[in-house]
Design goal:
six-stranded antiparallel barrel; 17 strands; 29% strand; alpha/beta; 375 residues; single chain; 23% helix
């Protein structure tokens, strides 16, 4: 006798709807799958008109209205939740403080960790919802023993698992990513939205940092931190020029240095080190950027923490390549050694470890070891 497969459990799902096409289609797919879906738009700005310029951002009154219209078409209840103060404290202020300390943060990771899968998820669970659905391109796979794993999206070109590497097993147990297991191009997602009658089908994607409307990160930081003139020096400490704030630079930066003195070899120079203590930016040749190892703090595991030394691949940027590494957790810190030197690694960035397509976990880079003693 052939057993009939059990029907998938109907979940109460809270769909986070930014007002964009991805989150709208994700909500529609969740509803179509038979779940009891409620849409919610997160008001993340005390002055929401300021969060969008053209295709930038995702947090304006316009976006809230687009999300509401999409929910009406899907036929689901819709609410707007004000998380502006929490967002300001946990994401915006953290972003400013990290740059002030000479580090390079990723606010999207912090938003996923602190807002979408903490503040939002906690409120959703308190109200009796089973899961939070978003338009991220990633997969949550349930094992036979009921444990869950976070994996890359089926389409690597759209994979967003890097910015979800901060989610722990409890958060994954209540996460739903309806777009992650389908290999579709963005044009096909837009075509699906159009078939469903969603007006956001042709809406431009949001880019860059949502709370910096014009994309001018340096200008945003200068407005919060003020201008603070300091020196730009070479590896020997010789002054080459000045800057208006060390927070305006990132490790590996080449453009915008405004150094009047050319390098002796005539080749471009890159930012090697940022010292907020003496407000100094050190520059040098590209080879001096080669990093062979790093130490990362505040590890977060997408499941059980690994034990002992292991072989993984690591990703260091949201759209970066994977690189083979050996990694081990030592006294609460993650020690990572690269098979081949990598460049553009900055404190404050996240290193996310993978075992095949599975996300093992992430940690915040605290220090790096250079191939050559550049600084």
């Amino acid at each position: 006798m052939t057993e009939t497969p059990a029907e998938p459990r109907r979940l109460r799902v809270l769909a986070a709807m930014s007002g964009g096409v991805d989150s709208a289609v994700a909500a529609a797919r969740a509803a179509e799958a038979g779940h009891d879906v409620t849409g919610v738009h997160l008001a993340l700005s005390a002055n929401p008109q300021s969060f969008r310029t053209g295709a930038r951002g995702c947090c304006t009154i316009e976006d809230s209205r687009d999300a509401r219209r999409a929910a009406d078409v899907i036929g689901i209840p819709f609410y707007v939740w004000d998380l502006a103060e929490r967002f300001r404290e946990d994401v915006v202020e953290d972003f400013i403080a990290e740059y002030e300390a000479g580090r390079t943060p990723n606010p999207c990771l912090r938003c996923n960790e602190k807002i979408k899968f903490a503040a939002l998820l906690d409120k959703a669970l308190a109200l009796g919802f089973d899961a939070v659905a978003t338009g991220h391109y990633a997969q949550v796979i349930t094992n036979e023993d009921g444990t869950r794993e976070l994996h890359r999206a089926s389409d690597m070109a759209k994979d967003q698992s890097y910015v979800l590497g901060v989610l722990d097993d409890k958060q994954l147990a209540h996460a739903l990513f309806p777009l992650g297991d389908t290999v579709t191009t963005k044009d096909e997602i837009r075509a699906e939205a159009e078939r469903r009658g969603l007006a956001v089908a042709k809406k431009p994607d949001s880019h860059d940092i949502c709370f910096i409307a014009d994309g001018d990160t340096q200008g945003f930081l200068a407005g919060r931190l003020g201008k603070a003139e300091g020196d730009i020096v070479d590896e020997a400490g010789e002054k080459l020029g000045t800057h208006e704030g060390a927070y305006g630079f990132t490790i590996g930066q080449r453009k915008g240095l405004r150094i009047g003195t050319p390098a002796p070899d005539g080749k471009p120079r890159y930012v090697l080190d940022i010292s907020p203590v003496n407000n100094t930016v050190t520059v040098g040749p590209v080879d001096a950027l080669d990093v062979t190892a790093l130490t990362a703090i505040k590890p977060r595991w997408c499941g059980t923490a690994p034990e002992g030394e292991g072989r993984y691949t690591a990703q260091l940027r949201a759209h970066g390549d994977e690189t083979p590494v050996t990694a081990e957790l030592v006294d609460g810190e993650l020690r990572v050694t690269f098979d081949e030197p990598v460049r553009g690694v900055a404190p404050g960035q996240a290193v996310v470890l993978y075992d095949g397509t599975r996300v093992v976990g992430s940690a915040t880079i605290a220090a790096t070891t250079r191939a050559a003693a550049a600084v």
